Amino acid sequence: MPQIRKLVIVGGGTAGWMAASALSRVMGTRNYQITLIESDEIGTVGVGEATIPTIQEFNTLLGIDENDFMKAVNGTFKLGIRFQNWSAPGSDYFHPFGVYGVDMGGLNFNHFWMRYHKAGGSGDFGLFNPQTLAARKGRFGRMAEINPNAPNVNYAFHFDASLYAKFLRGYCEKNGVVRQESKITSVAQHPETGDITSVTLANGQAVSGDLFIDCSGFRGLLIEQTLKSGYEDWSQWLPCNRAVAVPCDKVGPATPYTTSTAQEAGWQWRIPLQHRTGNGYVFCDAYMDEAKASELILQRLDGKAQAEPRVIRFVTGHRKQMWNKNVIAMGLSSGFLEPLESTSIYLVQHAVLKLLKYFPKDEITPSIRIAFNQDMLRAYDNVKDFLIAHYKVTKREDTPFWAYCKHMDIPDSLKMRLEMFQYHNDARVTSLELFTEPSWFAILVGQGLVPRSYHPAADEMPQEEFRWRMQKIRDGSTGLADMMPSHESYLAKTCPSP
Ligand code: FAD
Q1: In the structure, which protein residues have their CB atom closer than 6 angstroms to any atom of ligand 1?
Q2: What is the CATH number of the domain that holds 175?
């Protein structure tokens, strides 16, 4: 029998239920007692509706049927993010999931596109990416169903975060996870080690545990309020610290992409679901007050508001230690990076998988904690650089917020990436990063930073062959996009919400 058997998850938002579902699936509840505590009075953040393709791996791990999941969460499919007004007012580019073209002779396609572009070819690199073309036409379909011989098209989902938590709760309860609904009023620690020994609920019941997973949201009930793990503040590079969220009625077909529109003091998201549209204005309170942001987002909705705007306050950054003593923080309790590239749920997934990888049997050794913390910090750090690049590589100076972003100092790691990109057409430093060459290419070239040069081997392909291949890739991308039905008709056929 393992020594570490009683697992207590504090919090029933997306993070808590994702942790509980993966633990109950992988570790099981025969030898492990998994308890999740959540407070209806406190509630959850309840936003967080856009994802990236890695979530498919999470669903696969849980053995969840994708259509069942999509129906339960009123989901829509997502091929990428459309960025409007980021480079300059009126600018528009798309960051797709998946690659541009095909690699040739071991070289990334980006280098060939540069040769093509420098010789006068179209600046619209989306022509070489099927996701971009399908998104522009409002199309979507899983290629395995449409034409199994065609290459896979990467996708993710938009969903109702509260329905996702409810869906996972049903999954967990079937797996034997015990849910306790109550507010935790106090936390007990071992007098010598400082480990958490139990949490006490409002009714006086103590819930003891060997390992605690803190998914209590921004407050970080165990990781910060009890263990004082410290917070690394990244606001100087990512100054937005407020979001005002409001759902509205659905108007027109659901787009198979998220829209991010740069605004005077930040940016606005638009996330289509089957039954409504999620909207939010992410902004910095030094440049706009909450009342003004609420007023502006209401004016900019394309459907009737379904609720009063709700303000959420945050500080961008992360806990200095995400695994401290016998507490592991996940989700908002571990840190927060604004939802510009829909990475928070991915970071929860990453933490859950790392915990499963390092899961301690009898004792928590310092090496496990160090490995977990280093891995999580690396993941946060890579996403951070990618997000900052969106702000830094802008031509905008039309408001004080954008003037700050354009001229702000940036981390050395990002300076190096931008230099690498300009000279070598590659901003990725290691092969372990979430955002790969095509993503950096999409956002940097999309915002007008075209590399000065490209790999010399790209010039070695004879001109005739080069022209023929580029045309073939372009036609292939268009053909793939045209095979797909409209997103709405595909949803109606495969996974309509009840
Ligand atoms: P919460 O949802 O806050 O849940 C905290 C839980 O802890 C609740 O159940 C609460 O009841 C419980 N709790 C707290 N204190 C106690 C106590 N004392 N006793 C008992 N229970 C307690 N992510 C994405 O991937 N894509 C997005 O598009 C996206 N957009 C976002 C937009 C905004 C504005 C914000 C703020 C976040 C967004 N996220 C997004 C992040 C995503 O919403 C969160 O990462 C995710 O929902 C996880 O939240 P959580 O479970 O950590 O916290």
Answers
A1: 11-16, 37-39, 42-45, 47-51, 161, 183-184, 215-217, 219, 221, 243, 245, 280, 312, 314, 331-333, 339, 342, 344-345, 348
A2: 3.50.50.60
* CA 143 to centroid of chain Cα atoms: 23
**pLDDT tens-place string over residues 222-245:** 999 999 999 999 999 999 999 999
In a domain? residue 343: yes
Structure-token pair, residue 443: 């956002």
What residues make up the domain containing 224?
A: 6-49+160-234+316-364
Kindly report the protein residue whose alpha carbon is nearest to atom 47 of ligand 1.
Answer: 14
| CB half-sphere exposure, 109, CA atoms < 13 A | 20
Distance CA 236, CA 384 (A): 12
Q: Is residue 456 domain-resident?
A: no
**Residue 124, pLDDT above cutoff 90:** yes
Residues ≥6 apart with Cβ < 8 Å to 482: 137, 139
Give the number of the atom of ligand 1 that is nearest the alpha carbon of residue 243.
34
Asked if the interface predicted TM-score (ipTM) of this complex is over 0.95, the answer is yes
* Res. 429: pLDDT tops 90: no
The answer to whether residue 46 scores a pLDDT higher than 90 is: no
Task: Report which ligand 1 atom has the smallest distance to the Cα of 218.
Answer: 3
**342 pLDDT exceeds 80?**
yes
Atom of ligand 1 at shortest range from CA of 216: 7
Name the helix (H) or strand (E) containing 490. helix 487-494
- Pairing assessment for the beta strands 184-189 and 196-201 based on DSSP bridges: antiparallel
Report whether pLDDT(389) > 80. yes
Let me know if residue 20 belongs to a domain: yes
**Count of domains in the chain?**
1
Residue 303 lies in a domain: no
Mean pLDDT for the chain overall: 96
How far, in Å, from the CA of 8 to the mean position of ligand 1? Answer: 17
